[in-house]
Structure formats: structure tokens, C-alpha cells
Amino acid sequence: MRKIMIAGNWKMYKTIGEASMLAEELKKELATFIEADIVICPTFTALNTVYSIVEDTPIKLGAQNLFWESEGAYTGEISPVMIKACGCEYVIIGHSERRKYFNETNETVNKRIKAALGIGLNPIICVGETLQEREADKTKAIIEEQLTGGLEGLSNEDMANSIIAYEPVWAIGTGKTATPDQAQEIHAFIRGWIKEKFSTLISENLRILYGGSVKPENSKELMGQADIDGALVGGASLKEDSFAQIAKNAV
Ligand code: 13P
User: What helix, strand, coil percent values describe the chain, rounded to 5?
Assistant: First the structure.
């Protein structure tokens, strides 16, 4: 049985003070909630403070990116060691916003995933097609390319410590959610691909999250699909009531 995971990607929102307030509210709301794994991913600057608030709760911490070197002259970058030292157990890698605005490629995604796994962080690996790609009937080809490049050289053990998030780019922040059927089709495709490249056991245990305009109103139906094991939530994770409701709806 795969345990549901609800992860909140706070993106570039919230100062340390605002992030603390949200973390305190979530702590009240979800302190005893253990039916699903809850992960929150604040900005780098708020990680340590948020950790001090949630460290004794079931709420886990994740970062939104990392650089693959452990230290060095890389002005502006944050290393896996530093992220781990902030209390993180997870890290989002290859989000479409990083691919689009910061030239992230499948190759750099692969380096980041390996660096995360190397230090014991669980990567939440994002894949997804643009609207143009979907309309050109290239969705599966794009996902396959992202998986092939991104997961290159990973072992079964690495995959056992990883999570995949399918986030169709056209559904992110647009209010346009993939229908449960559309999402399920791609989730099943991803699981099938993992089965072929790794093993049946790895594919059966792998959690595949859906992301893209998930809200309390649509989360139940999405999470009800056979291959959807949780959500990576953007906008609706910035308010405690909607995020907590998504978590409660999912189980
Ligand atoms: P929204 O939930 O705001 O569409 O964002 C999804 C997302 O990008 C999560 O990583």
C-alpha cells in the first residue's frame, strides 16, 4: 500500500515571518494527522525557522531546489549539505518553473537528483508537458524523455527513495486542472515505464503525485485515481485551511 503524500510548494512566497505564521497554523491543524505524509517546502530563507516550528510534528520539511556540489565557489547556490542541515528530508527537483526560467535540463535535473540521494534527501522529481506539447500529441514522448534523462544511472534503491510528481505545465497556476482521467492516464504511463526500467516492486511502491491547480474542491476525485498517490500543491498550500482540507480529503 502506498501512503498518500501531500506536499506544499510555497514557491517564492512568504517572508520568514509569514512562513512562521503559516507553519504555526498548519501545526495546529495537522499536529496529529498521520494518515498521509505531509511535506511543506518553503523558500530557502525560511527553512530553518519553519523547521524549528514543525520538528516535533509529523509535518516534514522540503526545499525547492539544490545545487549538486557540496561546497565551493558557486555564488548564490545552496548545497545538499546545507539543505539537510536545515532539517529537510525532501527536495523538489526539476520543477517546470526551474526548467522554464532557469534553463534546467534533464541533465542538470539528473545531477541534482543524484546529489540529493547521495546525502539522504528524498527527491520529488517533477515531470510534465506544456500545452503545446499536449496539443501536438507529444505528452508521453516528453514525459519519457524527462524520465530517461532525469533518472539516468539511478539504482533501484535510489528509486525507492524518490517520489515523482506529474505536473502538466498548462495546469500550473492556471486554475485548469487535468481531469482525473487525463492525470490517471499519465500516472499509469509513468508507473509502467518505471516497471520496465527498474522493477515491478519499485513501480508498485513508487509514489506519483499530481500537481497543477489542486484545490479542496478537486482533490478528492484526483486522489481517488488508482495511480495518483498524492498531490504537489502550489497556490492552495499557501493557506492553512485549503492545504489542510486537501490533506484530509485525500485519505
Ligand atoms: P498550483 O497548485 O498553484 O497550480 O501549482 C502547482 C505546482 O507547481 C506545485 O509544484
Answer: 50, 15, 35
Domain that holds residue 105: 5-250
What is the spatial distance between Cα 75 and Cα 57, in angstroms, rounded to a whole number? 34
Q: Domain tally for the chain?
A: 1
The CATH number that applies at residue 238 is: 3.20.20.70
Dist. CA 183 → ligand 1 center (Å): 14
Q: What is the pLDDT of residue 224?
A: 96
Which residue is catalytic, options 29, 167, 187, 240?
167
pLDDT digits 0-9 by tens, 201-227: 999 999 999 999 999 999 999 999 999
CA distance readout (Å), 222 to 125, 180, 191, 211, 229: 19, 5, 16, 10, 9
Distance, in Å, from the CA atom of 65 to the CA atom of 14, rounded to the nearest integer, reads 17
Task: Return the residue whose CA atom lies nearest to atom 5 of ligand 1.
Answer: 234
From the list 87, 16, 80, the residue with the least C-alpha distance to 56 is: 87
pLDDT in tens, 96-146: 999 999 999 999 999 999 999 999 999 999 999 999 999 999 999 999 999
In angstroms, rounded to a whole number, what is the distance separating the alpha carbons of residues 187 and 200?
15
Contact 86, 51 (CB under 8 A): yes
| Interatomic CA distance for residues 119 and 97, integer angstroms | 24
The single residue of 95, 104, 129, 240 carrying the catalytic annotation is: 95
Orientation of helix 216-223 relative to helix 180-197, angle to 10°: 50
| Residue showing cell 486554475 | 175
Contact 78, 103 (CB under 8 A): no
